[in-house]
Specification:
The structure holds two protein chains of two kinds. By secondary structure, chain A is mainly α. In chain A, 69% of the residues lie in helices and 1% in strands. The chains are: A mainly alpha, B mainly alpha.
Chain lengths: 316, 305
C-alpha cells in the first residue's frame, strides 16, 4: 500500500490495517486521492468563476470591437496595435511607469531608513511605528478626500498656509495644473504608503540574528556601520519582497486618481487602471478598454509569476 | 522570520536601564546615550505628528463652523469650536445606510473567506499530490491580477445572477480576490505545524477533516486573527469593485458613501471633513485595537514558506 501511494505522504493513513477486501481498498485509494481536492474545491470554484473566468473573458473582449451592446466583432490584435498609437493610452502607460518607479524607490528607501531608526527598544519606537503606519489602514478614497482638502485651490490648507507666511504668490491649483497634478497625486500616495515597506523591513530586521547586532555593538560599531554592514546585507530578501509588492501595488492604482483628478487635467494624470475604466464605462469601448486592461495585467503577471515562484520555492 | 514585528518595543521601561547601568564610566556614558535617545524620541514623535498634518488639518476643520473655515482659512488657529458638524454630516450624508451595508458584507465575508482559504491552504501545505504546485501558483498569481480587468465580466455576471441591486453582489468577488493573500499566509502557517502531531493523529485513525479542524486550525489561531483583521481592513476600504457592481445608493458601502460626500456637501468643508472622519474612524479604532495582528499579517504575507 505504501508503494502504491508512493509520493503521497498523506491520507494513506486514513485507512489503517483493516483493509483486506479489494473493493474497499480500491475505494480508499480513490478517496485518498480526492481528499486534497475536496479541501480545495470551494476556493477553486469561487476563484475560478469570479477571478479567472472574468480575466479570460476580458481577454476575449480585448480581441473584439464591442460597445457592450449588440454583437462583438472579432478583430484579432488590432486593439493591441492601437494601444501603442493612442495618445491617451501612451500617457496612461507612461504615468503608470512613473508611478511604479516612484513607489518602488521612494517609500522603500524611506521605509528602510524608518525601520532602521525605529528598530529595537525604546518607549517612543512603538508609537512612532504606529503613527507612520496609520494612514495605510484608511480607505484610499478617504485619503483622497483628505488630500483633496490639502490641495483645494481656493480654500485648501497648502495655499492658505503659503498665503499666511507671505508666499501667496506661490499659490497653485495643485491638482488642476498639468505640471503639478501628477506630482501632487504621487506625494499623497507616498504619504499613505510609507508604513508598508517599513513593516516589511522591520520583519526582515527581526530575522537577522541578534548576535550580529550584539557583536557589532561590542566591537563599538557606529550606527551607520551597523546599518551598512549588518542591516542592509541581511535584508536581501526583504528588498525583493518590497520591490515586487510595491510594483504590483502601483499597477493597481485607481481610487486616488479617480477621486482626485479623474485623470485630468486633459488626461495628463491617467493611469492604465483609470484609463481602462473610463474607456469601458464612460466611452463604452469595451473591446479597447479590455486591451488596455490586459496591457496592465500582463505587466502585473510579469512581476507576479516569478515572485510567486520565488516565494514558494523549497527552502534549502 | 518571526512575526511579532511591532511587538518588539513593548518592554517594561525599567528593565533595560537596570541591565545597562553597569558600574564605571561605561555605564555613565550609556546613561547619557539613553537620555540622548529620549530627546531623539521626542523629536521623532513630533516628526510623526508633522507627518500626520493632513489628518490633523481635517480634524481641526471638522471642529469649526464652516463660516470660520471659509473666512479664516484652514491654516488659521481655530477661534471657535463646535461638534455640530458631525451629526449634521451623519444625517445629510445618510451615512447610517452605508455603515450598515459595510458592516453586513464584512461580517459575513471575513469569516467565510478565512475559513475557505484555510481549507484550501491545508492540502497545499500538508499533502503531496499531483498538480499541487500548479494549483498553488495559479491561486497565488491572483495577487498580481489588477481588479479593473475583471470588472466588466463581473458586472455581466452580477446581472445574470440578478444581484446588482444588493450589497451581496460583492460577496463572491471579494472572496475570490481575498484568496491569494490568505492562502499564501495560511500555507505558511500550516507548514509550521509539527508533522509528528499530524502523523500521529493519522495513525490514530483521525480523518483529514478532523485533523484540519481539531489540530491544525487551533494551532494557527494567531494567523487566522491576523488575516481576519487584514481582510476586514481590505473589505472595509475596497472601492473599485463596489463602484462598478453596486447599483443603487441604498446598497452602497462606505467607500462609495465617502465618494458621494463631495457632491452632497459642495463647499461645506467643515461637514465634508466631519463626514470623511466619520467614515474612516472605524479603521483608526481597529488599527489601535488590533495593531499587532495587523502588522503581523502584513509581515506574514511577505515570508517565504
Amino acid at each position: 500500500m505504501t508503494t502504491s501511494l508512493g509520493t503521497y505522504t498523506s491520507a494513506g493513513a486514513r485507512a489503517p490495517a483493516e483493509v483486506p477486501r479489494a473493493p474497499d481498498r480500491w475505494w480508499t485509494l480513490v478517496g485518498a486521492r480526492l481528499v486534497p481536492w475536496v479541501f480545495l474545491a470551494p476556493a477553486l470554484v469561487i476563484y475560478g468563476v469570479f477571478l479567472v473566468g472574468p480575466m479570460v473573458t476580458s481577454f476575449w473582449y480585448s480581441l473584439t470591437s464591442w460597445s457592450g451592446v449588440g454583437k462583438a466583432h472579432f478583430i484579432g490584435l488590432s486593439n493591441y496595435q492601437s494601444v501603442f498609437t493612442n495618445s491617451g493610452t501612451l500617457t496612461a502607460l507612461r504615468n503608470t511607469g512613473i508611478w511604479a518607479a516612484v513607489m518602488v524607490v521612494v517609500p522603500a528607501a524611506i521605509g528602510l531608513v524608518l525601520a532602521n531608526l525605529l528598530r529595537g527598544k525604546g518607549w517612543w519606537k512603538g508609537p512612532a511605528q504606529a503613527l507612520v503606519y496609520l494612514p495605510g489602514v484608511l480607505p484610499m478614497i478617504g485619503v483622497a478626500l483628505i488630500w483633496g482638502w490639502m490641495y483645494n485651490p481656493n480654500f485648501g490648507f497648502l495655499n492658505d498656509l503659503l498665503s499666511k507666511v507671505g508666499l501667496g504668490s506661490l499659490n497653485i491649483d495643485w491638482l488642476g495644473s498639468q505640471n503639478t497634478a501628477l506630482p501632487s497625486l504621487l506625494v499623497a500616495t507616498v504619504w499613505v504608503s510609507l508604513g508598508f515597506p517599513m513593516i516589511l523591513y522591520l520583519a526582515g530586521i527581526q530575522s537577522i540574528s541578534p548576535d550580529l547586532y550584539e557583536a557589532a555593538r561590542v566591537d563599538g560599531g557606529s550606527r551607520w556601520q551597523v546599518f551598512r554592514n549588518v542591516t542592509v546585507p541581511g535584508l536581501r530578501e526583504s528588498h525583493v519582497i518590497v520591490i515586487a509588492l510595491e510594483t504590483i501595488g502601483s499597477l493597481q492604482v485607481f481610487a486616488m486618481v479617480y477621486a482626485l483628478t479623474a485623470g485630468g487635467p486633459g488626461n495628463t494624470t491617467q493611469v492604465l487602471g483609470t484609463w481602462m475604466y473610463y474607456n469601458i464605462f464612460s466611452f463604452h469601448h469595451v473591446g479597447y478598454g479590455s486591451a488596455v486592461g490586459w496591457l496592465l495585467a500582463a505587466m502585473g503577471l510579469v512581476v507576479t509569476i516569478p515572485y510567486v515562484l520565488w516565494m514558494i520555492r523549497d527552502k534549502k | 522570520m518571526s512575526a511579532g514585528v511591532l511587538a518588539g518595543p513593548r518592554v517594561a521601561p525599567g528593565s533595560e536601564a537596570r541591565a545597562e547601568a553597569a558600574p564605571g564610566s561605561r555605564g555613565r556614558s550609556r546613561a547619557r546615550q539613553r537620555r540622548l535617545s529620549s530627546v531623539g524620541g521626542v523629536v521623532v514623535l513630533i516628526g510623526c505628528l508633522v507627518f500626520l498634518t493632513p489628518v490633523i488639518v481635517m480634524v481641526v476643520t471638522a471642529l469649526q463652523p464652516n463660516a470660520n473655515v471659509v473666512a479664516n482659512g484652514p491654516a488659521a488657529f481655530p477661534t471657535s469650536l463646535t461638534l455640530s458638524n458631525f451629526p449634521a454630516a451623519w444625517s445629510t450624508g445618510a451615512l447610517g445606510g452605508y455603515y450598515l451595508n459595510s458592516i453586513m458584507i464584512n461580517l459575513v465575508k471575513v469569516p467565510t473567506g478565512v475559513v475557505i482559504a484555510s481549507l484550501a491552504a491545508y492540502p497545499l501545505s500538508i499533502f503531496r499530490f499531483r498538480g499541487r504546485k500548479l494549483v498553488l501558483v495559479a491561486l497565488l498569481v491572483g495577487l498580481g491580477v489588477p481588479q479593473v480587468i475583471t470588472l466588466y465580466p463581473l458586472l455581466q455576471l452580477s446581472r445574470v445572477m440578478d444581484l446588482s441591486g444588493s450589497v451581496w453582489v460583492l460577496f463572491l468577488p471579494y472572496l475570490a480576490f481575498g484568496f491569494p493573500f490568505q492562502i499564501l499566509v495560511m500555507r505558511g502557517a500550516f507548514t509550521n505545524v509539527p508533522r509528528e502531531i499530524i502523523e500521529s493523529a493519522r495513525i490514530d485513525g483521525a480523518t483529514e477533516r478532523r485533523i484540519w479542524a481539531k489540530i491544525c486550525m487551533p494551532m494557527v489561531l494567531p494567523s487566522l486573527a491576523s488575516l481576519a483583521v487584514l481582510d476586514a481592513v481590505a473589505g472595509w476600504n475596497e472601492f473599485v469593485i463596489a463602484l462598478t457592481l453596486i447599483n443603487g445608493q441604498s446598497s452602497e458601502t462606505l467607500p462609495l458613501g465617502i465618494n458621494n460626500l463631495v457632491g452632497e456637501f459642495g463647499t461645506n468643508f467643515a461637514q465634508l471633513s466631519a463626514g470623511t472622519l466619520i467614515c474612516v474612524v472605524p479603521m483608526v479604532l481597529l488599527f489601535f485595537i488590533a495593531r499587532r495582528y495587523l502588522t503581523r499579517g502584513v509581515a506574514a504575507g511577505a515570508v517565504k514558506g
